[in-house]
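User: Predict the full complex structure for these chains.
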Amino acid sequence: MNFCITGVNHRTAPVEVRERLAFDAGAIGPALTELKRRPGVLEGMILSTCNRVEIALATDDGTEPAGCAEEFLAETRQAPREWVQPYLYRFADRDAIHHLFRVASSLDSMVVGEPQILGQLKAAWALAREQGAISGFMDTLLTRAFSVAKRVRTETDIGSSAVSVSFAAVELAREIFGNLRGTSVMVVGAGKMAEAAARHLRRCGASNILVTNRTRERAVEMARQFDGEVVEYDRFTAALPNVDIVITSSGATHYILNREQVKKALDARKNRPVFLIDIAVPRNIDPQVNDLENAFVYDIDDLQRTVDANVENRQKIADEAELIIQEEVERMVARLKAREVAPTIVSLQEQLESLRAAEVARMKGRFGQLSPQQEEALEALTRGLINKIAHGPISELRRHASEPDGPQLLAAIRRVFRLGA
Amino acid sequence: MHETGILWLRVAVVLYSLGLAHAILVISSRRTSLFPAALFAFYTGAVLQVVSVVEVSLALGHVPVNNFFQTISLCALIIAAAFLVVYQQYHFASLSVFIFPVVFLMTLIGSMETPVASWPNTRLRDAWLFLHVVLILLGYAGLLLTAMGSIFYLIQERQLKRKRRSALFDRLPPLATLDSMVTHSMTFGFIFITLGVIAATTWAFIETGSRWIAYPRIGLALLTWLVYLLMVFLRATAGWRGRKAAVMAIAVVCCSAFTWAAHVGLRSLLERR
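Assistant: Here is the predicted structure of the two-chain assembly.
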């Protein structure tokens, strides 16, 4: 079996590429079905967030998974393969496991240590399971990834300083408004990250939170969380003049705020600055809005650059976390290899047991009925014998499974004991 | 007849000064509570000014445009009337922040045609002049802070816009803090410069009678004050920030520097008598 992870993230691809490759929530289900249908594909999962689009793929031995994932991505996102290729990273087997653990532990995140990615990964896993795209191998792997993430979080300080895109947004808001007490915030679209940003702002003193969303129920629910007000989605621009901070994370495929609308709002608010945070991919706010005086637009990539400075500090903690990841990868690979040798061990035991049973039957045939004591002694003797014989090869197999000479040892033992193909 | 005309004009000046107070209140704290009273005083002042113009016209036999004082007073009256008409039509109240101080100062100058008194002693004369200098210097301090704050605002704004920070200005205060610092120093500077200008005008009036108005440095000083007023007005009503505000503040600083240079000869005045 082959395993690989192929995709793009904020480091390998600019937002223009990521927004083109991103799957919206509804598209992942059908895409998984289509992925599963491809020849050679055993298991698959799609992770699509603002910062990464990744395909994890397990294929049979005859299929090259990276190429398969690449082809799938290009076809489903209707992008020429040659155009996508330069932005892609490809990790195979051990490296893929390493990458997965790093992603889950938020070491590969834009803001290292931000907690959202784990939730997003869990959601991707749940969806893939629901679609029947994941079974034994990847299920084990992901479950392990989640506990590795938990271990990293509890054993290092990585999560303690709550750095995330949303927190970076709050820091920037402070650079503009100073004290956030009394500021008014509007959340357009009810994405998880927007919700987190709104929560941070609320905690920092934002007094008034307006929520608008295409589906009103979700807006109502979110407004309740923040003691906020719901604004009708088709009229939200009318409320702009009274809003200091706008967070957009709607799934709209076009710009929902353009230069004229913001200009009008700025005029109405006598040019008091407005901070527009666009964490949606595809972007919700026309980048030209940033050309207006007193309007500050930050998209997801800008936030990335802004937090880069802090990341350096966090990097030290991340190094510590990398050690944990390394250890966990070793352990996982060993476990997977052990799983690979398990059938051999079982067949070795079966082989010896059948030899023993045959010999015991032959013995009985020669000496006739044995007394219970004699029978018991014979059983014990033969069993003890095969166990002792099996002990050496089995422990050697287990010990060497994850080492480079593992496959040779496996082949040798199968040949010596005539364990078949 | 002529004298009562001047008297009405001086009462009008006092009434107009309420408008100045209103303007300062709006600039410093965006409070408009004084506006109704100031508007009423402005109406009354304008009516008194009309009375004054009519009286002087009757005495002269024609419209009073004989000299600069009469002309500037008439001009102030026309601006006041224009404002009242505009206000009636469009309720453009924020314009008062600009118009009230301008009309006040023009009328003040217009009312200084005939000397009321001469210096009772040189001490008062010199003290008055010192007071003027101190007021103006305080005003300059406020103005300089305004300009510096505006420049820092501009730098911080550019940094936030470009989404990159330079090593040199890594830790600037938030925009809002700089903005409020600029507002406060600008108001402080404006109050003192206005008081300084009033002190200077009255001093020159008593000192030289009606000759002072012909000095170019007076014109320059009044122009500087007018530019300052314009900046204050644009900031309070149109919310000028960033580049425009910085350019404006620098322009006012330049004007002030010229005015200062023009007044370097003041010391000799102290020794003259």
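The radius of gyration of chain B is 20 Å.
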